[in-house]
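Appendix B. Chain record.
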Amino acid sequence: MPIESGSCASARQAKQKRKSHSLSIRRTNSSEQERAGLQRDMLEGQDSKLPSAVRNTLLELFGQIEREFENLYIENLELRREVDTLNERLAGEGQTIDGAELSKGQLKTKASHSTSQLSQKLKTTYKASTSKIVSSFKTTTSRAICQLVKEYVGHRDGIWDVSVAKTQPVVLGTASADHTALLWSIETGKCLVKYVGHVGSVNSIKFHPTEQVALTASGDQTAHIWRYIVQLPTPQPTADCNQVSGEDEVECSDKDEPDGDGDGSSDCPTVRAPLTSLKSHQGVVIAADWLVGGKQAVTASWDRTANLYDVETSELVHSLTGHDQELTHCCTHPTQRLVVTSSRDTTFRLWDFRDPSIHSVNVFQGHTDTVTSAVFTVGDNVVSGSDDRTVKVWDLKNMRSPIATIRTDSAVNRINVCVGQRIIALPHDNRQVRLFDMSGVRLARLPRSNRQGHRRMVCCSAWCEDHPICNLFTCGFDRQAIGWNINIPALLQEK
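C-alpha cells predicted for this chain:
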C-alpha cells in the first residue's frame, strides 16, 4: 500500500476544512428563514406601539447584522485553525532541522518570529473584514462629539448659502430664496441685520476679508456689495438642544418647519441699497467670492461664464468663458490669485491670475454629473463635490486623476473644508451631513432625528475653526441654519 506524502495529506486536510466550512454556511442559511419566522411570531405576541411595517424593518435589519456576525465568526474560526496549523508546522520544522547549524534557541526565535508575522497579517485581514460593521455603529459615539448648539430661524424660504465673517465681531450670514440675506449673532441666535436690496433669490453670501462688507449673488442677474454695522447683544442662557436620544429617521411635514412669521428678523436693522452693484451677466448669478486682498470679486452665472470685477470701479476686468453648461459655484484661494469654477458640464476649472498677462486655465474631469462645488484647501489641493454622489480630492499639480474619492448615498451640495484639521463637511440632498478626512475616511455623521437637525435638503456648510461655541454651520431648505460644536480632538481620536 503506497504511503501518503506530507503534501497530499495537507491538501486533503485543507479540502476537508473547506467542505466543513461550506456545510456550516449552508446550515446557517437554511435556518435563517425558520429563525426569522420564529422572531416575527415572538414580536407579534408582544404589545408594541410600533407599526407593523416598522417592526418588520427593524427585524430584517437585526437579522442582517446577526448574519454578518455569524459569517465573521465562522471566518474567525477558520483563521484560528490556520494559525494553529502554521504553529504546528513551524514547530515540526524546528525539530527536524539539524542542530549542527542552528541552536535550539535560534530555532525557537526563528519560529516565534515567523508565527508573529503570520498572526499579525491574519489580524490585519480580520480587522479589515470587520471594518464595515464597525463603521455602521459609529453614529452612536459621534452623538457626543457632534452637538447641536443653536438654531437660526427667521427666513421665510429655503436657505441656499451660509458664511462666517472674517473680521470682528464674528457674525453668521445666510442667503435665502426669500430675496433677503440675514446676519446673525452666533451666540444668541438673534438677527442683527437684514439686507433687502435684491429682487430675486439670494444664492450666495461672502464676507470681505478685512472690512464689514458683504458680497451677495442673486437670481436678479446681479451681485451686490453692501456695508453692515453690527453690535452684538449680550448672550443669554439657552436651553440644551441635545436632549434628543436616538437617531429616529422621521419625515416631517411642512407644518413642522420653522415659521419666519413673528420672528425677531422682522424688527432688526435693514439695509436696503448696496454700495456697488455688479451687472454684466445675462442669467442667474449663482455664486460670488472675494479674491485675496478684497479689491476684486468673481461671480459665477447660469449664462455659462464667470466674471472678474474691480470692486472700486465696478468695472468688468475679465469674462471667463469655457464651460459648456451653467455654472454652479465659484471659490477663491485664501492666499493666492486663483479661482475655481464648477459647472453642470461635469467639470470644474482652475483660473490663474497670478501673472496679469497670463490667465491660464486647467480643466478637471472626473465626475459623471453636475459638479455642485469645488473649494481650495491647504497646499495645492482642491476638493470637489457632485450630484454623482462622490467627492474627490485633487492635487493641482496632477489633473489626470483624483488622489482620493469619497462615495456617498446621496447627491452632494456645497462642501466646506476645515483647513486647520483637514476635515470635509458634506451636506446632502437626503438631509444628512457627514464628516470625512482628506484621505476619504469617514469620521462622523451629524445627529438627525424628528426634533434635531435639518428636515429638508442640506444646501451648504461652513467651518469657523476659531469660534469657542460653534465651529460648524449648516443651512437647508427647511428655512433654518444650525450651529454645531464639533469636538475635533475626540473626532480625530475616534478615527
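Further analysis of this model is presented in Appendix C.
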